[in-house]
Structure formats: C-alpha cells, structure tokens
C-alpha cells in the first residue's frame, strides 16, 4: 500500500508559520486529493475494460441463462457499451465532474444510491474496528510494559502473530470458537450491536498487532527519556506514567498510520463482509468486479479514495493535537 | 428478526419459568412433551433461508433469468402449469389446455378465482401482458425469452381463456411454461419502472415481497389470500390454509463455511449450495437433514470442442474420454454425494439416455487411437506431438460456476490425461473472462451448466444453429456438434406431438451425441439443501428443483 507516503513527518511548528502557508498547504492537499480521485477513476475504468469479457453478456448472463441477440443489443444501447472506449471514458469523466456517478447496470439503479445504501455499514465497521484495534493495542502495551521482560517478549510476539494473520482464517477461527463452541455470538451478521462484534474483531486483531508493533519501538525510547525518570521521581505510578506520558509519546507514529489503516480496513471489508454476510461496500465491490459493472466499481473506488484522503487529513490534524512539537516548538 | 435467536439468557428464563410453572401446576401425568416432531403442521413463525448464490440484481425472473432468481421467485410467483413428482404436467394457474392438430394454436383455460397480491385479477389479459413483457427486448430477458421463442401472438379469447399462436409447433411448450422464469406477474405491477418492479415483483404465490435490504436480506411475508397451489400440492394439502409460515427472511451468505455455521448455530434454518464436505459432516448431525434436488436439463459434463483441432478428429475425442478416470475422482472428491452420469440429460429428465459402456477407461485403446490419428511422437516432457506440435488442450474453468470439488476433479482429469500424453491447460477464470475466452473459440474443453425443464435443452445445446454466435460471441453449442442427422432429429422432436415418437427421437439424438464422443458426462447439476430438522414440509419443485415453502412449517 501507499502507507509510507502518508507517514506524517513531524514538521516544524505550524502555528508560527504565517497564515498563507497553511492555506497553501491546504490547497496543495486538495489538489492532491483531486489528482488521486482522477487517477483512481481512470485506472479502474481502463483496468476493467482491458480484461477480456463482455459486460453486456455479464449483465444478462449467469449460469444457465444465455442471452438473446436482441436483449444484448438492447443492453449495449442502454448503457452506451456500443460506443468506442475513449468516448465511453470521456462521457464518464464528464458526468463525474457534475457529480453524477452514473447508473449501475448490475443493480438497475444509480451508483450513488447503491453506494449510499451500503456506505454506512462499511463506515461503521471500519470505525468500530479502528477503535477496537486501538483499544487492543493500548491494552497489550500497557500490560507488557508493567510485566517486565517476559511480558514484553510475549506482547511483542503476540503483536507479530496478530499482524500476520489473514482475515479469512481469523474469521473462521472466531466463528468456530465464539459461535459454534461457546454459542454466544452469531456466526453471520445480524441487526444490532451483537452482529458487529466478530466482523470488527476480525479486522481489529491484525491491525492491533500492526499498531502495537509501531508503538513498541517509540514506547521503549520514551520509557528511557528524562521526563519518565522525572515522573518516577515525583512518585507517579507506572500505570499513570504509561497512560499520561509514554503512551502519548509512543502513539504519534501509530496515529499517523491510522489514515492508512482506515484504507486497509475498507479493503479488508471485502473479505470480512463476505464471510460474515454483512452489508457493505466491500461486498458490492466484489460482485461489481465479477459482473464488470464498471460504473459501480469506479464509484466505489472513488468513494473509498475520498474517505481515505479525508481520513489522512484528519490524522494529520490529530497528530498536531497530540504532539505539541508540531504546534509550538520550532526546531 | 434473527437477532432474537441470540437472546439466549432471556429464552432460558422463559423456559425455566415455564418448567417451574409446569412442575408447580400439574403433578402426575402432566407433561406431554413432544420429542418427535409430530406430523401435524404448525402455523406461524419466521424461517430464515441462507442462499450461497449471488444476490439477484432483480427479483423479477423475467429480467435476465438465472437460478438465484428462480430460487427466491418460487416463493412469490406462480406459473400456468407445473409438474408432479413423476414429471407429468399438472394444472396450476391454468386448469386445462389443448393444442390444435398442427400444433400451431394452444388454448389455455385459466382459473377464475385467483388475484395478484396487489388486487389485480388474474385473467387472460394478464397472461398476454406477461408474455409480452418477457418478449419485450427492453425487459432484457434471456432464459424466459428463449423458452417462449415460438409464441408469435397471444389472444385473450375471453376473460379466462387465452390462445397462443405459434410460429412453429413446440412440443416443449408446457415444460417451458412450468418454469418460474416465465411465471405470471401482476400486469399493473409490470407497468411500473423496471427498477420498481425488480425491487418488488407482484405475483399470486404463497408469499409477498415485503422489503429488500440490499446485500443483507429480502423479507417475504405470508399472502393471507393464497389459494392457488399447483394441482398436486392442492390435493396433498387439502383443507389446509397454506402457507403455514408467517414470513421468510431470505439471506445471502456467500461463504460456504459461514453458511453452514449459521445453520448449526440456529441462526438460519435452511441453506442452499451445500458443498460435499458440508453434506458429509451434516450426516452425523441429527439436527440437520439434507434435501438433494438435482436440477433438470443438461447433466454437468465436459464438452469437447469438435469445431477445431485436435478434437475435430473423433479418434482423439475418444482417446481423451477413454484415458481419464472420472469415477474415482467423483467418489473421493464428492464423498459419495454425487452420482456419476453417463447421459447428456439430468437424471430427473424421464427421457434421458445413459450409455455407460462408452465411458469405460481403456488406456491401451486410447493409445492406439492417438497413434492412428497421427499423434505418435513424444516430446521432451512426455506429451504426445504431431509434426513437432504438442497435443495441448485449453480448458477454461469458470470459478463462479464450478465448485471447488469440481475444480479439483478437473485437476485429476488433467493428471490422467497427462499420462496418456495430453497436455491439459486448466485456466481458472471469472465469469466475464470465461465468456470472453469461449467467444474467441480459445478452448478445447469446457464445462457449462444448463438448466431447463425437458429434453428440448438438447436442441439448444447441440443443434448446429447454436454454433452461430450471438452478436456477443456467445453460443450454447460449446461442443460445436455439427451433424445434419442430429439437427433433423432435434427439429422433428421439438415438433412431435406424439409422446412415444418424441421419446424415441430424443433417444436417437442422445445416442449420436454420446457415440460421437462429443461430451464427457460427469454428474447431475448438484443442488443440495440442508435444513434444520425443525423445518418440515419443505420440498423441491419438480420443475426447476427450487425449494418451495408453500407447505413448510417450523416445529417449535
């Protein structure tokens, strides 16, 4: 992923910069967002069209249903598939500029409506997973900091394993344990808060491992810094030192990664939403790709790219809040 | 809603309280608990069904027309005729019918007491509107369109008598009309936009589409005025107020393991697309029962592309078929859940012809045939070659249509064929790419399912007309059989009005297909359902083998 690109470079104090600098920064960021959106739309559009296969056949086709010539011609006319590719692309871009994402031919409805129906579910899942991942990562770090060398080793081992576990395998294990053995959680999504637990946990565990790994390094540095010694000297408890001082220090790189993490959660949703039969954009994306529903795929990719860009912006801002250096201190 | 199933503590409290009351109130001879489900239907309750198929993009099976649509539409749409367990055509929305001697005119008498769930009466005009809807290119019907291809005109003779005028005699008309892809919908509802009609088609069936939460579930509720089951069901359930269930939640759970876990945990009561390993493991679970309903039409088979080299030589086709051992693979990969087929037609088709002797493995004979056909060299990798060119077979596999066990079977076939000197190139593809490769004629072997009621499917699959590609490039005759005698037989059979004559024509046609080594039959199109033992009265329609919940109930 492009995760490395979004790593915040703790820049010099923004507050001391004159205001135009900030505006310039924002304009640049906005331009970047637009470029990302255009590139996403273009690449998706052509990638889907260059793969062999006839969208018209896919629209009408399916096991045991062979489309008649008239039906195919009708579909081609209706969706402009009989036009040259370049014309289709330009028409598409033109509509995109006016905010029209087009008509999904596999769903027989506007792409915007289709995404609107599903976006909430994916956003909820991603946010809950992100919160859960943070909670897990912090809890494990807190425990392993207090527990000495052995706990430290166990903690970092767990993080390594968690970060490497694939979603589909984790989902199966969680279903086996929580649904079939214990019988306390539903194996497929159901309305209400119970239904989100397993899907969110599936996405949160690998992410927590990843965040934990990133935090651990700076946690170590922070624990040996003078301010921790000072705090100890003041007689503050280790728990308080962790939550007040070292965690804050250690969290900075991990917060920066949350933007990237959000993007990865949305791609993880493709697997998790299918396994748990949950509503959401990930599932829409999967079936849209299979059906060569170019407008729907591009629409979803655009929305995800936008969410990703916004999230990166938010984490940059959060970074400024957590790290006083980015606000006041000019180096 | 399904979430209630998980409030176990509450249920436990209720049960405990009930037991306490029972103990307190009645003493000796009190508790008449039923351990065995009694045969008496129970009214009420919500059943949750989990489908492994893709969620249909349109709930109206006139549009497009695939199996996932047929599965759900069976619950709310009904056809003019149905089939009984013996495959005999029985009355449904039409009470009787008659064809003219030349087979060019059919008259159907319709029930006069049936109303669509939007209040529109079912009558001759409604039938005409439905046929017109399927035949309208704007509907983009494919399956239904083909099924009704020979209907030229529909005339409402009076309110409840309708006449079909045919462009040619069609011995498969009744079978075609029994399919849910051409079921009857309210003409008033059909006048809505396609988007609206796709979201909630209106029929005469036991249930009504209530809400559709995309990528989650469709909720179907009881049709309180239901009065039109097919004749065989009406007879068997006389005096009952069908359907028994209050509602059905129709879910889409694409992952096979999750689907089975949902059934085991009680989250859902019926699942489809049960995989061989799941079926096997369910055998040892007393709370789960199986319903095996092979689909009608063609058996699953590998088609040998006779339209180009090397399979344009019958000897090479026979050599291939003689050198691969399919039986062992099916046995080990399907755990005995699938039975080997030796027929072009499904085992549920009464006119299917089986010729097992043609498919016995004989590697010596295969070897001799290949030598004779000129493939007598061996290259460095041990493959056979002719004039320095390797004996290579392209085998595109649709991963959407071939289940994992079937894909493994193809790999075993690949290994067997290698021993005989064939290089089989398996190519797993998604549906659109797979269509693309077929359209380009870049295949030597292919497996494509085809579901249709009746032996007329043979005409679609093996008449030389079906080699001519549609504008999309797709064609149904993937074996590219081009045999004038076969064409003649299939054309005669589809026009034959005499049942005996029709049967013998189709038998002869199948003999040509099998003896020409155009296909390697594998097994019926697998269609396994698993249900919780609390579900009673579930059956598969003898038409397209979709389950119907019209007579199903939940044992509390």
Global morphology of chain B: globular
Span of the ends, CA to CA of chain B:
16 Å
Residue stretches of chain B low in confidence (pLDDT < 50, at least 5 long) are 1-38
Quantity of strands of chain B, as a count? 25
Question: How is the quaternary structure best described?
Answer: heterodimer
Q: What's the main sheet of chain B like?
A: 7 strands, mixed
Largest interchain contact: A-B, 65 and 71 residues
Uncertain stretches of 5 or more adjacent residues of chain A: 1-20
Task: Give a quick account of the main beta sheet of chain A: strands, pairing sense, barrel closure.
Answer: 2 strands, antiparallel
Please estimate the helix content of chain A. Answer: over 70%
pLDDT averaged residue by residue of chain A: 79
Instruction: Estimate what percentage of residues of chain A fall within beta strands.
Output: under 5%
Strand order of the largest sheet of chain B: 8-9-10-1-11-21-12
Task: Itemize the secondary structure elements and their pairings.
The complex is a heterodimer of chains A (331) and B (556).
Chain A: H1 19-50, H2 55-60, H3 69-79, H4 85-97, E1 103-104, E2 109-110, H5 111-146, H6 148-164, H7 167-181, H8 194-223, H9 226-234, H10 238-275, H11 281-290, H12 294-322
Antiparallel strand pairs in A: 1-2
Chain B: H1 8-25, E1 46-51, H2 67-73, E2 81-83, E3 89-91, E4 94-99, E5 105-110, H3 124-135, H4 143-147, E6 151-158, E7 161-166, H5 173-177, H6 187-190, H7 194-199, E8 207-213, E9 217-222, H8 231-236, E10 247-252, H9 256-264, E11 270-271, H10 276-283, E12 288-292, E13 300-304, H11 314-323, H12 326-334, H13 363-372, E14 377-378, E15 384-386, E16 389-390, E17 392-398, H14 404-420, E18 423-429, H15 431-439, E19 445-447, H16 457-462, H17 484-495, H18 499-515, E20 519-523, E21 528-532, E22 535-536, E23 539-540, E24 547-548, E25 553-554
Parallel strand pairs in B: 1-10, 1-11, 17-18
Antiparallel strand pairs in B: 2-3, 4-5, 5-7, 6-7, 8-9, 9-10, 11-21, 12-21, 13-19, 13-20, 14-15, 15-16, 22-25, 23-24
Helix pairs in contact in B: 11-13, 12-14, 17-18
